[in-house]
Amino acid sequence: MLQFIKRYSLGFLLLGLAAYFIGRYFYMQPKVVNGENAPTIQGQLIDGTAFDIKELKGKYVLVDFWGSWCGPCLVEIPGLKKLHQKYKQANFKDANGLTIVSVGVERDEERWKKAILRTGMDWDHHLLDLSTSLKFLNGPIAQEFGVKQVPSKFLLNESGVIIGINQSIDALDAFLEKRLKE
């Protein structure tokens, strides 16, 4: 028996690790999928204005879940800023411009506001998705999308249908570039 364990222990270990990573991969996927209508997002913008994502029909919309406490989120912000500057007034074949809707997954509203100013996120749509416990992703907007990690991004077409999930900034840029009017 001991010889059997020695012979196959590495195989069992590798099999266990593979099962863990496959399970983790599927668990971390959001509950929304490409091709379905995006969940409704309503709330109050950072300046107190009421917001409803339906007002953005006709544009490409990038819904970006982030946190002021999240290192990878902060690293992505310069790329998001470039994407926004390049496409915010672009004429696409099927849409008029790109709008970013940032959803801050936070427990502290002041920290969220300071991070927006400090990082220079110059788009108009910033929503706070307050967490009520130590479990950060339990705010209503994150729950609607089934977000289990940040950063998470969802690209919506001009009709509010999800057409991209967690694409890199480069992939988003390439996608939008192909859709520009000539």
Characterization of this structure:
There is one protein chain. The protein has helices at about 1-30, 70-85, 110-120, 140-145, 170-180; strands spanning about 40-45, 50, 60-65, 100-105, 125-130, 150-155, 160-165. The chain has about 180 residues and is an alpha/beta fold. The model has no long low-confidence stretch (mean pLDDT about 90). About 40% of the residues lie in helices and about 20% in strands. Strands 5-4-3-6-7 form a 5-stranded mixed beta sheet. Strands 1-2 form a two-stranded antiparallel ribbon. Helix 2 links the parallel strand 3 and strand 4. About 25% of the residues are buried. The protein starts with a helix and ends with a helix. Helix 2 packs parallel to helix 5 (about 170-180). The longest helix has 27 residues, at about 1-30. The radius of gyration is 20 Å and the shape is globular.
